[in-house]
Design brief:
The structure is a single chain. By secondary structure, the protein is of the alpha/beta class. The chain has 2 domains: 5-117 and 300-328, Quinone Oxidoreductase, Chain A, domain 1 (Alpha-Beta Complex); 132-270, Rossmann fold (3-Layer(aba) Sandwich). The chain is 26% helix and 27% strand. The protein is built from 9 helices and 15 strands. The chain has helices spanning 46-52, 123-144, 162-173, 188-194, 202-206, 227-235, 259-262, 278-289, 309-317; strands at residues 5-14, 17-26, 35-43, 69-77, 87-91, 106-109, 114-116, 154-156, 178-182, 198-201, 218-223, 237-245, 267-270, 301-304, 324-328. The strands form 3 sheets. Strands 3, 4, 5, 6, 7, 14 and 15 form a 7-stranded mixed β-sheet that branches. It has a 6-stranded parallel β-sheet with strand order 10-9-8-11-12-13, sandwiched between helices. A two-stranded antiparallel sheet has the order 1-2. Helix 3 links the parallel strand 8 and strand 9. The longest helix is centred in the middle third of the chain and has 22 residues, at 123-144. The radius of gyration is 20 Å and the shape is globular. The two termini are 26 Å apart. It comes from Candidatus Thalassospirochaeta sargassi. One of its GO terms (molecular function) is acryloyl-CoA reductase (NADPH) activity. Pfam families: ADH_N, ADH_zinc_N.
Length: 333
């Protein structure tokens, strides 16, 4: 296998410009790892777009193959826990960041990064979820430990994005009322179809009063953007409510008093899917494969080939993508 060629989307640094193209590589060029996996599907995440555009906080050295998600079949294994032909999911850790990622026909990774595909989940479905679905699943799990459906609405920011849209669909299936925040007025129908009960425009939510506390309207929240949106969410949570946060695309800074936390008992929960322990990872994936799998899952994605990645990355960086984009590695352009 070492001399076998495979196809990969490779980003090169050329005079401070970052250019991605389909390249032929050899398997022996991959980093060391106990598992060699033939990739069937990957997915596009914001971190992939950053890696492909030269963000050194994500990827330090180029040429590089992004793709923080992969679903495929084990070709060879040095770990007895895995056998040839096992279907596996590999997400997060260092995959696609400084280790060559899932935008390729093969990956080679440490076996501790992989989990066996749950029986009720296909490889395509696993990548419709991907890291976004795992992050949404962790957020829902932590939130449902503290907030029950009868206690009120859950507000979700970044609602048309991967984490936001999947969070809405899962919460809806679990019987929660959901309020969606979006900057895209034209996507109201899409959000209602996902399961949102109410939609608030981002500009209106950002324009709320600057008071330390706002009217308590929501029992809980899943925030994916940070900044002013997260500030206003926290200030709008009811007594003993909870908020999960997993992103900072709007801002990494918060301008808050402690009043929501000490006067209303609000809990702020950070969500990190990258380094989630495997035992917790398996628990979330099993829920995503069964009780939490949205009925609309197979209606909420766009499937592309490796050749289409550049265009989708550009749209993602402009904030013009909705839902999930998966890459069928074997699909012809």
């Amino acid at each position: 296998m070492k001399n076998k060629e495979y196809k990969a989307y490779v980003v090169n640094e050329e005079e401070h410009n970052y250019i991605g193209k389909i390249t032929k590589k050899k398997i022996d060029s991959l980093q060391e790892g106990e598992l060699l996996v033939k990739v069937y599907y990957s997915s596009l995440n914001y971190k992939d777009a950053l890696s492909a555009s030269g963000n050194k906080g994500v990827t330090k050295e180029y040429p590089h193959t992004p793709g923080i998600d992969a679903a495929g079949v084990v070709v060879s294994s040095k770990d007895k826990s895995f056998s040839i032909d096992d279907k596996v999911i590999v997400t997060s850790y260092d995959l696609g960041m400084n280790t060559n990622g899932g935008f390729a026909e093969y990956i080679q990774v440490p076996s501790k990064w992989a989990l066996k595909l749950p029986e009720k989940l296909s490889m395509k479905e696993a990548m419709i979820f991907g890291t976004a679905g795992l992050t949404a699943g962790i957020s829902v799990l932590r939130l449902t430990e503290l907030v029950k459906p009868e206690e009120g609405s859950i507000i979700v920011s970044g609602a048309t994005g991967g984490v936001g849209s999947l969070s809405i669909a899962i919460l809806n299936k679990l019987g929660y009322s959901v309020t969606a925040i979006t900057g895209k007025e034209i996507e109201e129908k899409y959000l209602l179809e996902l399961g949102a009960n109410e939609i608030i425009l981002r500009k209106d939510f950002e324009g709320l009063d600057k008071k330390p506390l706002l009217k308590p309207l929501y029992a809980g929240a899943i925030d994916t953007v940070g900044g002013l949106i997260l500030e206003n969410i926290i200030k709008s949570i009811k007594q003993n409510g909870a908020v999960t946060c997993c992103g900072n695309v709007a801002s990494a800074k918060l301008d808050l008093t402690v009043f929501p936390f000490i006067l209303r008992g609000v809990t702020l929960i950070g969500v990190d899917s990258q380094n989630l322990p495997m035992i917790s990872r398996e628990k979330v994936w099993e829920k995503l494969a069964s009780d939490w799998k949205p009925l609309s899952l197979l209606d909420s994605y766009d499937e592309i080939s490796l050749d289409d990645i550049d265009q989708k990355i550009s749209l993602m960086l402009q904030g013009k993508l909705k839902g999930r984009t998966i890459i069928n590695v074997n699909k012809k352009a």
